[in-house]
Structures are given as structure tokens and as C-alpha cells.
Design a protein that fits this description.
By secondary structure, the chain is an alpha/beta fold. The chain has two domains: 5-139, P-loop containing nucleotide triphosphate hydrolases (Rossmann fold, 3-Layer(aba) Sandwich), CATH 3.40.50; 145-394, no CATH class. Helix content is 43%, strand content 21%. It is built from 15 helices and 13 strands. The chain has helices at residues 5-11, 31-44, 68-78, 98-108, 120-130, 145-152, 156-166, 179-200, 207-219, 227-236, 243-255, 285-291, 298-312, 349-360, 389-394, and strands at 20-24, 52-56, 85-90, 111-117, 135-139, 259-266, 271-281, 316-322, 325-333, 336-343, 368-372, 379-381, 384-388. It has an eight-stranded mixed β-sheet with strand order 7-6-8-9-10-11-13-12. Helix 8 packs across helix 12 (285-291) and helix 10 packs across helix 11 (243-255). The longest helix has 22 residues, at 179-200. It is globular and about 70 Å long. It starts with a helix and ends with a helix. The mean pLDDT is 93.
Length: 395
């Protein structure tokens, strides 16, 4: 396992601070390994091993601690008496009323607490109720292209085609696997995330409709989301479902980090719009595990990769609207703003104009990019940077 410095650098400023560190993300994105890296960092700094409590609630070893009183009692028995105790609680959502335990530990002892979870709605509701202002959330994603390159000790030219087709779940790259083997590994991850973090957490009974909904979203990757269209599609398959239920299922999939919903941002009005949203997936290999790699969906694949890359870099990402024109992504990070178009090629004049025109229409001086899959089309076009996607994802 490589050191995931991007996340470690986000965590380190909060070590030994009275703030709960909450690592969130889809199952098997590497949250547990990241916690172990923080634990190893503490040990290397001289923290005694007896001052560290590490509990992974996916293990049957800790099944007896699945209620709040049992967990609190166990930690009280093992807490350090005269110095700080570092507590790591992995997949905390498996513990009933866990938030009361964390809140009490913060009040009763000298502790530094780290938790992970794979269901955002469960975490956010409990955290906002009991721990407002006392936690920081760090989103953990599957491997970036740079991390993928480090995993396999290969350069960008070799890495990107593989990364595009294999995705970035760390457990699929701990050893050399064929694409079919990777898709089988990811299929099991997807099944677990769907069953445990979506279906069970939200008491979804119509599992067949949920799975058909996910299939529809996969096949329409990068397209404008319409609950009405989905309802019509499911009706054509003799599966009747109302629009509100579709939105409930979408929210459930979001809360398990399987999908990300991207709102539209009006550049002229400087406001977030509630219509014509888009949906992207936590990792492309989720799609491949179900349908295989489909070359005719390359445009959506590339958009998905760029979207996740911007999230990893800390940007808040929207689909841009400038008058009647659309920009694939408008990204904000503090005072930084970035405009990004994503396309497979700009070989034809029609495609070239379609990709450049929205960016040319924007009159400010923030960076503007067209991310392309063809290296030969890269360069500067009147201040707009055309960048090969391998280089863009590596930056």
C-alpha cells in the first residue's frame, strides 16, 4: 500500500487538535488503510502503542461492541490515564448510537478521535446533531491517476489507458490482475455498497427497481438527469415508480457515495440552479463491472474522470451555464475559479467550435481548459489551454 499523501496532508494539521477527524467515501476507497497510516505516523512520532485504540467494526472481533454502552465501556477500560489516547473507529455506522459515544469521550477524556463511515446521510445527521463545530470531514476517493502510477510504477503514457479501463479501487491494484479479475473484485464492492449502505440503511424494498435505476444512470453517464425520463423508462419496462421515489433512491445512492449529483451554476446570475443536474459515479470500474468497457461512451468516461479529479483537488464543482451555452465544469476553491471543457477529440471544426465557444463567451481572466484525449490537439488557443487528459489528471 502506498502512502496517500494527498489525504495525509489534509489530516496532519488536525492531529492532537480537539476536532474529530471524519473520513468518508465509498466502501473500499482506502479509508481504513488511511487510518492505519495515521496510526503509523503517530507511532513514528513516539506515541506509545498502548495509547492507541483501533477498532474496525466490520470485523466480527468487535461484534459485541455494536451498541453504544458496550463500546463506551470498552474504551473506558483501555483509555490511557495520564496522557492522550488516540481512538480510531472504523466503519462507525455499524454501532448503534455511536455519536453519543464519541460526544461523551470528547467530554470525559483527553482523546484524539478518528472515524470512518460509508453512509453520508447517517454521518451528517448524527454529526450535525451532537458534534456541530467539533469535527472536520475529509472525503476519500479511489486512486487518482498519480496514485495509480505509483501503485504500478509506470509512467503517464502507460498508466492512463489502464487507469481509464481499470478504475481506481485500491484493492483491485494490490496485485496484478486482469481486467476481468478487476471487474469481479469491483462487482463485489458495488454489491456490498448497494446492499449494506443503500438498501439496508434506507429500508429500500423494491430492489429490482433500484438496480434498474442504477443501470439507467450508468448508460446515461454525463447526460442531464431527469426523474421524469427515468420514470418513463421504468414504466416501459413494466416497473411503475413515481418521481418522488426516484429522487429518494437517488439520495440513497448519493449517501452511500456510489454516485455524485452535480448542480448547475448560472455564471451570469451567480447562483446555483436546481434543474438539469448531472450524475457521475464514484469510480468508472463500477460501470465496467456491470456492462464492461464500452468505447462509444468514452465522452462520459472522460467527464467522470475529470470531475473526480477536481473533487480530489478540493474544488466545489458545478455544471456551468452561460446564457444558452453550457460549460462542462465550473470549479471553485476559495478564490480560485476554473472552467473546464472535456472532449474526446477536436478534430472536426464543428466539435472545435462547440467546445471553445462557451469558454470564449466568458470574459473574466480565470483559467480555461479544454481537456482532450488526443495529445496532438494540445496547445494554447487564444488563452484557452488544450491539455491532454493524462497530464491534466496528473497535475
Amino acid at each position: 500500500m502506498i502512502k496517500r499523501e494527498l489525504y495525509l496532508q489534509k489530516i496532519k494539521p488536525f492531529i492532537n487538535k480537539p476536532i474529530i477527524k471524519v473520513l468518508t467515501g465509498i466502501r473500499r476507497s482506502g479509508k481504513s488503510e488511511l487510518m492505519k497510516m495515521v496510526r503509523d505516523e503517530l507511532l513514528s512520532q513516539g506515541v506509545p502503542e498502548n495509547n492507541i485504540i483501533y477498532l474496525n467494526f466490520e470485523s466480527l472481533r468487535w461484534a459485541d461492541l455494536s451498541n453504544s454502552m458496550a463500546l463506551y465501556g470498552y474504551i473506558c477500560e483501555h483509555i490511557a490515564t495520564n496522557s492522550k489516547t488516540y481512538i480510531f473507529l472504523d466503519e462507525i455506522q455499524e454501532v448503534e448510537n455511536w455519536e453519543k459515544v464519541v460526544n461523551s469521550l470528547m467530554a470525559d477524556f483527553d482523546v484524539d478521535i478518528y472515524i470512518t463511515g460509508a453512509n453520508s446521510r447517517m454521518l451528517s445527521s448524527e454529526l450535525s446533531t451532537y458534534l456541530t463545530g467539533r469535527y472536520i470531514e475529509i472525503s476519500v476517493f479511489t486512486l487518482s491517476l498519480s496514485e495509480f502510477m505509483t501503485f504500478h510504477s509506470i509512467d503517464t503514457d502507460v498508466a492512463f489507458p489502464r487507469y481509464l479501463k481499470e478504475g481506481g479501487f485500491p484493492s483491485a491494484h494490490n496485485a496484478e490482475h486482469s481486467e476481468d479479475e478487476i471487474y469481479k473484485i469491483v462487482s463485489d464492492i458495488y454489491a456490498s455498497a448497494l446492499l449494506r449502505d443503500t438498501i439496508q440503511r434506507h429500508n429500500i424494498r423494491n430492489i429490482d427497481v433500484l438496480e434498474r435505476l442504477v443501470g439507467f444512470l450508468m448508460m446515461n453517464l454525463g447526460n442531464v438527469f431527469s426523474a421524469k425520463n427515468i420514470s418513463a423508462y421504468l414504466k416501459s419496462q413494466q416497473r411503475k415508480i413515481d418521481v418522488e421515489t426516484i429522487y429518494n433512491y437517488i439520495r440513497a445512492l448519493e449517501s452511500s457515495y456510489i454516485i455524485h449529483r452535480v448542480s448547475r451554476y448560472d455564471l451570469k446570475g451567480k447562483e446555483v440552479l436546481q434543474t438539469n443536474e448531472k450524475l457521475y459515479f464514484a469510480d468508472l470500474s463500477l460501470l465496467y463491472s456491470r456492462y464492461g468497457y464500452m468505447p462509444d461512451m468514452i465522452a462520459g468516461y472522460l467527464e467522470n474522470l475529470v470531475y473526480l479529479h477536481l473533487l480530489r483537488k478540493g474544488y466545489k464543482v458545478y455544471v456551468g451555464k452561460s446564457g444558452s451555452l453550457e460549460i462542462d465544469f465550473v470549479a471553485f476553491n476559495g478564490n480560485e475559479t476554473m472552467y473546464v471543457q472535456v472532449t474526446y477529440t477536436m478534430e472536426s471544426e464543428e466539435t472545435r467550435n462547440r467546445e471553445l465557444r462557451p469558454l470564449q463567451h466568458i470574459k473574466d481572466n480565470h483559467p480555461k481548459y479544454v481537456v482532450v484525449a488526443d495529445k496532438l490537439q494540445c496547445g494554447n488557443i487564444n488563452g484557452i489551454q488544450c491539455v491532454w487528459i493524462g497530464d491534466f489528471l496528473k497535475e
